[in-house]
Each structure stands twice: as structure tokens, then as C-alpha cells.
Amino acid sequence: MAEKASPSSNSISLKTVDGKIFKVSPAIANQMLTIQPLIKDSDSSTIISLPDVAAFHLTKIIEYLEGKPAAAPSAVDAFEAQFVKDLSPEELKGLLIAVGYLKVNGLVDLMANTVAKLIENKSVEYVRKFFGVVNDFTPAEEAKCRQEHAWAFDGVDED
Amino acid sequence: MKNHCAQTSLSGVLLDELIFEILSWLPAILLLRFRCICKSWKSLISDPNFIKLHLQRAPKNANLILTLIGNHGKRSAISCLFRSLLHHKPSSPTTVIAENLHYRLKLMKHTGIGVSCNGLICLVRAFPRNFRGNEFHKYRVRLWNPVTKLFSKRSADLLVKVEGRAFDSAEFGFWYDKLTETYKVVAVLVDNGASVENLERTEVRVYGFGDNDDCWRKIHGFPVFPIQLHQDRKCVNDTFNWCICKSWKSLISDPNFIKLHLQRAPKNANLILTLIGNHGKRSAISCSFRSLFHHKPSSPTTVVAENVHYKLKLMKHTSIGVSCNGMICLVRAFPRNFRGNKFHKYRVHLWNPVTKLFPKRSADLLVKVEGRVFDSAEFGFWYDKLTETYKVVAVLVDNGASVENLERTEVRVYRFGDNTRCFVSA
Predict the structure, then answer these.
(1) Cα gap B308→B18, rounded to integer Å
(2) A57-61, long-range: CB within 8 Å, 24+ apart, which pairs?
(3) Using one digit for the tens of pLDDT, what is the confidence trace for A11-24?
(4) How far is B411 from chain A (nearest CA, A)?
(5) Does ipTM surpass 0.90 in this model?
(6) Three-class SS of residue B305?
(7) Does A103 contact B at CB distance below 8 Å?
(8) Residue B386 in contact with partner chain A when CB distance is under 8 A
(9) pTM
(10) Residue B200: how many CA atoms within 13 Å on its side-chain side?
(11) A24 and A78 co-located in one domain
(12) Domain that includes residue A148, residue range
């Protein structure tokens, strides 16, 4: 997973799916568990390609890893709330996929929790559409499944 | 590896493991709904590993259990989400309760609703006294999940020789034993009356759901001690109590540490016992299950005796209510003759049985009598993550709380730490 780049400091070069190259410090790169083993074998001229990560997502991930306050968890909460505040549902989903692929420390929980809030109390139809899930139940199977827990379908929020 | 630009669509189907992560943060009731999304979600939601993770992460204490009495005194239990009671989704509390009524659990005669743990509720059936020629009391326990409406198998029968014991003299608690991954039920059998002399016959029995030996094992050496267990006992989370050095002390009182600890600490680690002393004075003590059963550091007698030293003296008319996050709700119902019998008055305290701390008491809740029975308010409380406050909800039911007549059901909410200091109508 390497191609030569101009040797600079000991920063790691990451290449996104849309062809942008980011230079990050080993401390940052080490928090992406998926690429951790690649970092050991690489020198400053190595470029690691990230097939599932777009530049926008990597920018956000680096913003998170660099900006996350080290100590006080209350500051972390505030920082995390701010971090996800302005993201659209589509951006959140994309970022979750990128974060899931890179296995970024702490960020998987935050993103999964944030996406969970988007579908809280939504209808089955809404959630299928939201995640692009194909319904593989037959109508009879689905009706039976709904029948089994009919009380779970009261009070659904509007889509 | 060169430019391995896979054609993965970023907005397309999420990977299973990410779905796993997302769903683990949702309330249980939604998981029941989302079983119908597709086959792989359905199997994921019933996966034991998923269920374990979900128990850790899902919102705690999301349901209020109400007991209603219908025609001919038939009782039933319903569970309502706090969320739907308060946010009027889709409509008024009366409607929410009416909808849930449709799925009510009909309680058999002599069946009582006991403590809860991990979202499960302990149902105790006490058989009438005339069993086997009055020689034995018989009890049977089941666990009920009010969200999925599923039952555990029923426990083996617990037979207790009468020999002067009062009926209803067994008190039950239960908790999840992480080591064996089973639910354990503990029954404390108390002797008739509160006199010191015959308390020697107080016994502790344990039943494990899923254990191979399908029986109530006797635990030896339970206190020979002037205690009487009363109706009130709840299981609560354990919290911290170490004092090692100054830096630990400040760490341990850090609000953020407390939050993390609440997430991670063992759930349901304490049994709350209510003791009745001289002149009928009641007090509450908490013992950890661990110290009661594993005899650490010493015998259960010592454990209880030590804890009695730190007992909470209960005022008259104060009862121990539900628990959440290791806090226990104490409800004081003032006698009826308040303000010329026109109002019922209630006051709520939260109590941490481990730190022995009380937050401020609540404002008074005044309820016009108008034909309501006394003790017609049911209290529940939970921790609201958003506002980071504890909220108490009181559901006021009409006289008789009948299933057929719900019109005058009212819901009031009190928020600890709020400036308004009053019970707000929801």
C-alpha cells in the first residue's frame, strides 16, 4: 500500500478515495486502528491509500483527533456536540462509514450514537430508506413480525 | 498498493458492524420495531452479543410500570415509556395509558410486582395459605420483560414451613450475576412478628434462573438479628466509596468520573432492607449482594450489623420507591387531614444508599382529593441525559384506578435541580 513521495518529516501521508493527500503526525495516524500496522513498516515517503474515505471525511476525522480535549470529559462532551452539530444526515452516514473503516478511537461510538438519534422513533419505512436497506421479508412474514410486537408500533414520529 | 479507489458508495448500505453499533444505542422498544426492517437486522437484534452490548448502552429506566384495578378487583400491569408520557407523543397521557392497556399483563391473584433489574421485573406469586394442610407457604417467581412482554420460565416452588411465620413473610430481590450469566433471585424469609426472640428463624434462599439444580438453595449464617423485612426493598446500582488519598478523592467526586462510573459499574449490587425497630420505627439499610453471599469480609450477620450502624431512619408515611442509577426514590405521603381533607400532599427525596447523601427534597405535590383514594399517586423517576437532572414523574389515578375509567388520570413532573421547584403538569 505504498508509493514514493517526497521525504519530509516523519509525517504519514494518507491518500483519500478522491485523490487528495493528507500529511498527519504518527500520533494522529496511530489512532486509526486499521492503518496502525501499516505505519510501522512505512517511512516518510510512504503513501497509504484509503479506499473508503473521502477528503471531506478525513478532514473531519483529523479535526476530531487534533481538536479533542485531552483531559476534562465535560469539555469532550461540548467538543463532540459541536463536532456533529452542523453535519447533514448524509454527511453523518458517510462519516460513520469512514470512521468504521479506519476504526478511529472514540469516534465510532460518537458517530453511531449520533446516527442512532436520527432514527429514534422513526417508522420502519423511514429507516429502510435512510439506510438503503432492502426489505427481504415476504409481505406475510413482515405482517407476522409486526403482529408479534404490535405495541412497538404505537406513537411513531412523523418522517 | 496503488490508488486502490474502490467504488464503494459512501451513502449506500452500511456495514453490519456499524448497524450493530448504531442499534446498540436505541431503546429496546425500537429494536422490536426495527426487527421488521429486514432479515439480517432481525437476527442481529436477537444475537446474544448484541443484547449484552445493548444492556450496557441503552437508556436506563425508560419505563414506568403502573398497576391498574379493573372490574371485580382484577389487577393488571402496564408499562409506559416516560418519554411518551411526557412528550405527548402521539397524544395525552390518558391516551398513552389507554394504548398500553391493550397489551396489559393480567396479574393473577396473589401475584405481586417486585423489584426490577436490567429492564426485567420480578413477579412473585404467593400461594394461599391452605396449601398442604396449612403446613407450608408456597412462592413462585417469574421474570417479566415489560418491553418484549416475554416471561422467563417460572422458578421452582419455594416451600416454607409455616410454624408460626406470617404469610407474606418472604421478601424477594434479584440481580444479574455476571460470572455465571444468570439471574439470581434471593428470598429472605422472616419470622412472624418483630420480636427479637424468634428472629433466629430468619432464612435466606437463592434461586438461579438457568442453574442446573432447579431449587432454592439455602444460604447459611444469615443474621440472627432484630430485623424485619418489610415490603420495601429495592435493588440499586453500586457506587463508589473508596478514600485512598487526596487525588483519588477529588477524582472520585469529579462529575465526569461519576458519569463514566454509572455506565460501567456493576448494576443492581445492593439489597435494600427495611427494618422495624422498637415502637414501630422503620429504618432502611443497604447491603451488597456480594458481601451477603460470599461472606466477605465476614458472616452476613456482621455485614448487616455493620450496615445498621449507617441506617437511614424513615419518617412516618415515607416509603421506599423505585430506583435508578443507584438512587432511591423516597416518597412521603402526608396524612389525609391536610388542609381540611381537600388535598393529598406528597413529597419526594432521592437517596443514595451508598454515599448516604440526599439531594434537596422536592417541592410539595398537592392533589385535590375530589373522590380520589389516598395513595393513588404512583411515582417513577429517571435520569434525563439531556438536561442532566433527575426527573420524578407522578401519575395520579382516579378513585379505584379502574381500567374502564381513565379520564381523570394526570401526569405531573418534578425536576431536581430546576429553578421552578414545582410539579409541572405534563
Answers:
(1) 49
(2) A57/A16, A57/A94, A57/A95, A57/A98, A57/A99, A57/B10, A58/A14, A58/A16, A58/A20, A58/A22, A58/A98, A59/A22, A60/A87, A60/A95, A61/A32, A61/A95, A61/A98, A61/A99, A61/A102, A61/A104, A61/A107
(3) 888 889 888 999 88
(4) 18
(5) no
(6) helix
(7) no
(8) no
(9) 0.69
(10) 2
(11) yes
(12) 124-153
CA distance A51 to chain B (A): 5
pLDDT interval class at B369 (50, 70, 90):
low
- Examine the domain organization and report whether A23 and A64 are in the same domain: yes
Percentage, residues of chain B above pLDDT 70: 56
Where b means 16+ CB within 10 Å and e means fewer, A67-83 reads ebeeeeeeebeeebeeb
Q: Given a cut of 70, is residue B402 above it in pLDDT?
A: no
Q: What is the DSSP string of A140-153?
A: HHHHHHHHHTGGGG
> CB–CB of B42/A121 below 8 Å?
no
Residues A110 and A52 in one domain: yes
Please indicate, yes or no, whether residues A31 and A83 belong to a single structural domain of this protein. Answer: yes
Report chain B residues whose CB lies below 8 A from the CB of A1: 1, 4
The alpha-carbon gap from B246 to the nearest alpha carbon of chain A, in Å, equals 18
Nearest beta carbon to residue A151 from set B14, B37, B103: B103
Cβ contact (<8 Å) for B12 and A132? yes
